[in-house]
Write a structure and sequence with these properties.
The chain has 231 residues and is mainly α. It has eleven helices and five strands.
């Protein structure tokens, strides 16, 4: 642990519960984590298989694996779980797939794969339509709606209110509004736009939106607009 400052040493030796370390770029965060892993295994008797280091990127995970490989022996280093959050999730899903009735060698679709399948089922290649459909499906997934429940909602219900932020990058607001009005004719559409771009908001109203707000706005203004549309 030569070359470490007192704060880094304290973080490595601390064992009495959760620990939050705040540090800027290039301040030695990865070094502290790798040294702490080595400390837990070599000095504290922790089994490597019980140690997990979760990062945000594959690059960071690879770097951490390489560094810890220079400190611990290969058999010990190989037992560690050093990966991204998503890689860990996939590993758990593959190991427990049988409990869910799935095969462990399942495939993971990216957004382009999903758009292709949705487009094939919906019979359209229109990007605005696909974005709307993907958004609806994503909301069902986030709400833990079952496939049967989603089928019922698709057949029996329609959203009453849709908010659309035209300030988001690459947002073709007018095209999306036309598609929403075509697929969900009973929905109320609230458009959010920048104060400097009133013309876009007004064109959105002409395309089928029912009201608009300009950024920045307060929570009270947003609530009042929603109440006005729903009432």
């Amino acid at each position: 642990m030569s070359g470490l400052n007192p704060q880094q040493r304290e973080a490595i030796h601390y064992l009495d519960g959760p620990l939050l370390v705040l540090a800027g770029a290039g301040s030695g965060k990865t070094r502290v984590i790798t040294q702490k892993i080595a400390y837990l295994v070599q000095e504290c008797g922790f089994q490597p298989r019980n140690v997990a280091a979760i990062t945000f990127t594959n690059k960071a995970a690879k770097e951490m694996q390489e560094r810890i490989g220079k400190i611990l022996s290969k058999p010990l280093a190989d037992e560690l779980q050093i990966s991204t959050f998503h890689s860990l999730g996939v590993r758990i899903l593959r190991e427990e797939a049988k409990s869910l009735g799935y095969k462990p060698r399942f495939s993971i679709f990216d957004s382009a794969d999903c758009a292709g399948i949705i487009g094939e089922v919906a019979g359209t290649v229109d990007k605005a339509t696909l974005r709307i459909l993907q958004s609806i499906i994503s909301n069902w997934k986030n709400a833990l709606v079952t496939p049967e429940g989603a089928l019922h909602m698709a057949r029996e219900t329609r959203p009453d209110l849709i908010t659309m932020d035209l300030t988001m990058p690459n947002m073709d607001g007018e095209a999306c509004i036309e598609e929403i009005a075509r697929f969900l004719p009973d929905a109320q559409i609230l458009v959010v736009s920048a104060l400097s771009d009133k013309a876009t908001a007004l064109r959105a109203i002409l395309k089928g939106a029912h009201g608009f707000l300009h950024k920045p706005f307060t929570d009270e203004e947003l609530l009042a607009s929603l109440v006005e549309l729903i009432a």
